[in-house]
Amino acid sequence: MRSGKLQFVMGLLAFLIAWLWIRFPYEMFGAVKKFVAASGQVDPLTLHLRGEFVESNLGTAIEPDGSVTVRLIAQQFNFVPQCVLVPVGRPIRFRITSADLVHRFSIAVTNDALEVVPGHISESQIQFDKPGEYGATCHEFCGAGHYDMRSRVLVVARDKFPKSTPEERLTCASL
Amino acid sequence: MLLFKTFFRRTHVKAAMLALGLPFLVSRTKLPQSASPQPPVRVPSYVAWTQETIDAANSGEAIRGLVIARRCAHCHGQEGFSSDPLVPNLAGMDKLAIWKELNDFRDGKRNSAIMGPLAAELTVQDYSDLAAYYAILPIYPDPADPRSFPQLPSPLTHTAVAARLISGGDGARGIPPCQACHGPIGRKMGAPSLIVQNSDYIRLQLEEFASGNRSNDINMPMRVIASLLNDDERQSLASYYGSGAASTPVGASAPAK
Question: 20 to 30 A Cα–Cα from B222, which one of A132, B15, B19, B230?
Answer without folding.
Answer: A132
